[in-house]
Amino acid sequence: MQLSPAIQELIQALKVLPGVGPKSAQRMAFQLLERQREGAQRLAQALTQAVEKVGHCNDCRTLTESPQCVICAHPARQQSGMLCIVETPADVLAIEQTGQYQGRYFVLMGHLSPLDGIGPEDIGLDVLAQRLSSEAIQEIILATNPTVEGEATAHYIAELARQAHIKTSRIAHGVPVGGELEYVDQATLGHAFSGRKIIEAN
Amino acid sequence: MQLSPAIQELIQALKVLPGVGPKSAQRMAFQLLERQREGAQRLAQALTQAVEKVGHCNDCRTLTESPQCVICAHPARQQSGMLCIVETPADVLAIEQTGQYQGRYFVLMGHLSPLDGIGPEDIGLDVLAQRLSSEAIQEIILATNPTVEGEATAHYIAELARQAHIKTSRIAHGVPVGGELEYVDQATLGHAFSGRKIIEAN
Ligand SMILES: [Zn+2]
Ligand SMILES: [Zn+2]
């Protein structure tokens, strides 16, 4: 049976969402058209606006609609001398929710992955190296995911920091190995911060 | 921490989707903005188009963007004399996928629910009564859900059909094919027993 082209296209388009397969896309399409037409219009508007307005922070690369994000623009954060390196904007949110960290961030928007052709410049490490040499940074906290790629990325950045003579720490492995930062509970993430270890220059 | 207003609004708007809570809305928003901007634009477009174009079939009430849906417009279906009553467009799809039915449908877009103020006219039963008296319908198949409301709705329509002197049947309910008795709920098992069929000695 052929559904109307507009319904078919909506079902196809909904499958772009993470975790949404053909069956739930169909369920979503029908529910929106049967009962949530205003919600569907609002969603269309929000998607258009977000895609149009949201770019990356010039300083930390996180998603934001101003040239500099709220955290980077915060004077106390700027004076903290702390720079926490994370993989994604969701990681920033997760760390902010612990309330344990008052410094700035650098958001890689990914991790090193030579097999996928993702090298240092693809995750902004050239920008980071620049910042390390030009700013007064006292400590770098490496909060990449405890995965193979996250560890390799942390290692690479630790070396950049060593060359710039900046103290570097790695968040403690209270975070379950193989897990993703975004899904860790606040208490564990808080422990991981307070238990961070200085990485000795060797 | 404050996310950019456009990102916050996108997260809010995504929560209109069935089964999407705050956490998965956030994950969806970040993924769209980080990696799926074209997909997000396509989705916005599809939502706008679908809301604008998709209405209800004049004959069967299902979702369609033409005045009459493909099934209602099909000559062989029109001549079948069969009318299957279902609650939703998704039910039509499910029945079509069996390939076992070649008649037409009437889609209630809900079921009777006096407590929620949903009466006969809200589910198109006035339109249905009109069709029963003006069209050559040989059999009505009641395929509403086997829930309290679905059964009450089926009962109400059976009475309409009786007044119009039209043969009426209810789809069989029982143990799903391939299912194990042990895992079937009591109500289904009850239906399976009360609806049992005599096996003729041959
Ligand atoms: Zn920033
Ligand atoms: Zn129709």
UniProtKB/TrEMBL annotation, chains A, B:
UniProt-listed SUPFAM superfamilies: Recombination protein RecR
Zinc fingers (C4-type), renumbered ranges: 57-72
Pfam families, A to Z: RecR_C, RecR_HhH, Toprim_4
Family matches, as InterPro entries: DNA_Rcmb_RecR, Rcmb_RecR, Rcmb_RecR_Znf, TOPRIM_dom, TOPRIM_RecR
CDD domains to which the protein is assigned, alphabetical: TOPRIM_recR (cd01025)
Residue ranges of every copy of the Toprim domain listed in the record: 81-176
A GO biological-process term: DNA recombination
Entry-linked Gene3D superfamilies: 3.40.1360.10, 6.10.250.240, RecR Domain 1 (1.10.8.420)
Family: Belongs to the RecR family.
Protein name: Recombination protein RecR
Gene source species: Pseudidiomarina maritima
